[in-house]
Amino acid sequence: MLSWYHDNMADSPLLTDFEAGTIDSSTFGHREHVRVIWELIHAYGTLGAVSRFESSLKRITAAAGHPEKYHATITHAFAFLVGERLAEQGPLNWEEFTQTNADLFEWPNRTMQRMYPDDTLSGPVARKTFVMPLSRAIAPSGTEVAP
C-alpha cells in the first residue's frame, strides 16, 4: 500500500497543510477529514495514521480556539473504518473510494450511529478517549448493561 501511495499521492497539498497545522478549519469539513485519514493510511498504515491524524487535529482545533471540538471516539472509529475498507477493497483511488464507500461521507453518519448509541458519543469519556463500539455490551461484571 505504501508504494502505491508514493507513486500516486506523495505531494498532497491537503495532507501537507493538515500536518503543518495551516489548514483553514472553517473549510475543513467531514469529507476533508475522511480524505486526510485515507491519505495517511496509505502513507503510514492505519495505526500510524491514527497517531498522526490525532495529534494534528488536536493542534488544529486548539489553534482555532476550539479544542473541545476534538472527539477521540469519532476520530479513531472513522480511521479504523477507513482502514478496514481499504484492507478489504484494495488500493482504490480517491474517486473509487468515495463511490464505493458513500456511507462514510454522510453526516451525521449512520454507520457511526449503528456502532454507538447517541448518549455514548455525546458523553465526555467518548470525547476525550476512544470508546469501543457498543462497549456497554461488555461492561464490567456486576454493572447493569442497557440493551
Note down, in words, how this protein is organized:
- The protein is an all-alpha fold.
- The chain has eight helices and no strands.
- α1 (2-8) packs across α3.
- The protein is globular, with a radius of gyration of 16 Å.
- Residues 1-6 have low confidence and may be disordered.
Provide a quick synopsis of the model:
With 147 residues, the chain is mainly α.
Brief descriptors of the model:
mainly alpha, 0% strand, disordered N terminus
The separation of the N and C termini measures 40 Å
Q: Indicate the percent of residues in helices.
A: 55-70%
Number of strands: 0
Percentage of residues in strands = under 5%
Order of helices and strands: HHHHHHHH
Total helices: the number is: 8
Low-confidence stretches: 1-6
Instruction: Compute the average pLDDT.
Output: 86
Bulk shape: globular
Main sheet: strands, sense, barrel: none
How does the helix and strand content classify structurally? mainly alpha
Number of domains: 1
Radius of gyration, Cα only, in angstroms?
16 Å
Please specify the SSE layout and strand pairing.
Layout: H1 2-8, H2 13-20, H3 30-63, H4 72-89, H5 94-100, H6 110-115, H7 118-121, H8 124-128
Helix pairs in contact: 1-3, 2-3, 3-4
